[in-house]
Amino acid sequence: MKSESFRKQALSLVLFFAAVAAVFTLTCLRSDPAKKQAEFVVQQLLSCSSAVEQAVDAAASTSGSEPGLAAADTDGLYTFLQAQLGDAMTADCLNKVMANRLPTRITALAGQSGDKLVPADLTLKKRAGAENCYDFSAALLTAADSTAAAQVSGTITMVKEDGRWKASAITLNL
Question: For the residues 15-23, what does the mean pLDDT come to?
Fold first, then answer.
């Protein structure tokens, strides 16, 4: 009698661990590390308005020019973005982000709203027919009172470089 009870308990335990392993396997198969990294990059890029503003002001004070977005094409801003996103973007992508002035466009929008902007309701959807390319959209809210300042959308393409997922191209529509 005891051995039959023991067998039932052992069988139940084996079935339990098999079910846990199956759930774990399905969860791992469904996770998309490229998408998670893409979400991180977009979140950081959309959150950089106050840091960019500080870099612009610092560049203006050291160069003697008037503060403003024209001063933002400095080594200081590039260094800041490289420190924040250099491990998450290819060098070519970082250069394109700077050339397209994406951080300063977000900062200009923050200046128009009079407050730091915070992304909310960020969604990423895998683009059909394109490998590791995601369409994204988000609302930019003011930090102080969560007032909607803008709706943004764009695309981000990810590549695996040195064993890590990195953004290789980003477009942004404000």
Answer: 52
